[in-house]
Amino acid sequence: MLIKVSPHISLSSLKISDAPDILALVNHNRARLNQYLYWVEDVQCVDSAEQYIFERVNSGLNEALWFKIYFNNEMCGVFAVKSICPQTHVAELGYWLGDNAKGNGVISQIINYLPSLLAHTSAKTIEFRCLEQNHASIKVALRAGANQVGSLPNFMVANGIKQNLNIYRVAL
């Protein structure tokens, strides 16, 4: 399934067979991604890239959707609705983007498309979880109109610093 978000951006379901391409993209962006994402060091070969994908697409979490992102027909990252809470109707988002698409508003455009993508789900609110030093992701959340609603203190060590995980939400 190919979802056309804009003339230059599309989403396609993430599959185990995408592992070689995911590995290449992670390898090319490893230093930057490793600053904010706990799983990057675990993706070192095709088998571990397959495991990364398998764990996500088979998470069993409510209404989860996992996609690879294409910018100008080149795979550039992953976007997910990680889950939708059946009680609160909050859709937690997750995403990462390679350098080949950074600075083009790709994630913001996908978020603008979210009401269409989530029309047949129970989601009423979207949630962003960003490490406090991940200024790019925080800017995406703020541009989407989200407000910080909480923080998990000392969530993980990234860049040698214990960082809080900030939580932002916005109504769909």
UniProtKB/TrEMBL annotation:
Tell me the InterPro entries matching this sequence.
Acyl_CoA_acyltransferase (IPR016181), GNAT_dom (IPR000182), Ribosomal_N-acetyltransferase (IPR051908)
Domain (N-acetyltransferase) spans 11-146
Q: Which UniProt keywords apply?
A: Transferase
Recorded hits in Pfam families, A to Z, give: Acetyltransf_3 (PF13302)
Any one GO CC term of this protein is: cytoplasm
A single Gene Ontology MF term assigned here is:
protein-N-terminal-alanine acetyltransferase activity
- Is Transferase given among the entry's keywords? yes
PANTHER family attached to this UniProt entry: FAMILY ACETYLTRANSFERASE, PUTATIVE (AFU_ORTHOLOGUE AFUA_7G00850)-RELATED (PTHR43441:SF2), RIBOSOMAL-PROTEIN-SERINE ACETYLTRANSFERASE (PTHR43441)
Q: Any idea what this protein is called?
A: Ribosomal-protein-serine acetyltransferase
- This protein's species is Pseudoalteromonas piratica
